[in-house]
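Notes continue from the previous slide.

Worked example: a multi-chain complex. Inputs as given:
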Amino acid sequence: MSENTKQNDIILEAKNLYFSYDGEKTYSLDGLSLKIKRGRKVAFMGANGSGKSTFFLCCNGIYKPSKGTLYFDGEPVDYSRKGLLKLRGKVGIIFQDPDNQLFSASVYQEISFGILNLGVSKEEAKREVEKVIEYLEITPFRHKPTHALSGGQKKQVSIADILVMHPDIIILDEPAAALDPKHTTMVNQIVDQLTEEGITVMMATHDVNYALSWADDVFLFKDGKVLLEGDAVSVFENIDALKETNLEQPAVMQLFHSLCRKKILDENLPVPRNLDILEEYIENIKN
Amino acid sequence: MIAIDKLCYYSNLRYVNAGEKFAYAVLTVLFCVASRSIPMAVLVLIVNGILTVYKGGIPFSRYMHFMIMPLVFLLLSTLAILINISKTPLDAFAIAVGKWYITSSWQALSQGFQLILTALASVSCLYFLSFNTPITDILTVLKKMRCPALIIELMLLIYRFIFVLLDISSAISISQDARLGNKDLKTAYQSFGKLISILFIRAMKKSNSLYDAMESRCYDGHIHVLSEDFPPKKKNIVLIILFEIILLAITIGGYLL
């Protein structure tokens, strides 16, 4: 597969998905349709209860939509036991609250659970577990029980749980929730490393600044469907859509537009996606 | 419970092969119960004390604190064996209370003392195991001993859930305190009732979420996990065998005499 084909290849597609938690009185997914391209960094944003987490659980086959079709790698998802196991081996989900994910008393056992379920040999599983422990710098607390870990360490372990399975897609449901800035940075660095390796990363986040600097594509969810989608800059330029989803424009964009209005910066400059680029623009004025 | 859990993760004997520790503890308990010998109980108490405090590095005060708890319970529960209320005074001592005596015989005292020491020595064996071996290692040993997978998986999940629920109950309790939820006995009872009911609901929700998370990692009804093995050491095995042979000799000697 050429690099170009790979970039435009659709790895996951939702067609008119419906899902209800209350016997179809209300819908958490209400005719959701979207396409995710392979190897992209995709941010999912929207108010609480807009259907992001429900969609993620559908992607992993935990929930089966009542109507509509989900395609993985061009094939409709097979909800037989065998089909689900295959899907779950390819689509890994890291839950918002690690305490809902970590079931084992030991870090080592916890990380080995997923890969052993894929049917690999114990020797290979051991090698992979050791590799991911080293890669995510879990060694200092690998012998601690999971209940004695800090929030950031629990998050590291929950990422390792999925990473060890080598999925094609990694879904992170608000990975920075309840983390301090240090651990948020650490999680973001891990996510950056994943995307550099070409894994498709889907992330739910409320952090517009991070989404602007990180994401290739952004989906704004409202009432169980996509309100707006596109590249990060175009989505965050749409103030009305942001308001509808309880979001604000990223600070760097607000500042850039303000400086453009005041004729300090040239409005033909590309919209900066982070503070470093904006700083560069301002430095260029001085020169 | 939590104190024991913390201690075992910091014990110097934590990385000793769990099978060795398990075999030592279980065999020693069996000999203690089978022989009911006072010298053996004293020997086991001393050896377990040395292993746990000196070798394991568990603070002596902590160890004594944990040993006193069963001792108090044993003393109270053996009072019925040690003391008689009778119209006839027995040989050990007799305190007259009107026409009755609070009394005891040497045989009853010896029997009570034997019972207390045997039980205490057995408890010290279990303390040795739990102070020096994390629960995951014990479960690994049970798995190797062909204990049914269902029981082991339940134990693993229960153990994990104890801590999850303790965290939740602590958070709710603090939140109740912060809003004067325990200002008097009546509100304290009400708060406690609410705490229990919400804890039950949260436990259900947590278990559903945990099940989803396990399913998302291809859970097939059996929990397959790797365990970290610490290889057994010949020296330890030889020492355990020698010690158990001594205990066997005391047991057989006791039956023959």
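Summary box: DSSP finds twelve helices and ten strands in chain A. The first helix of chain A runs from residue 3 to 8.
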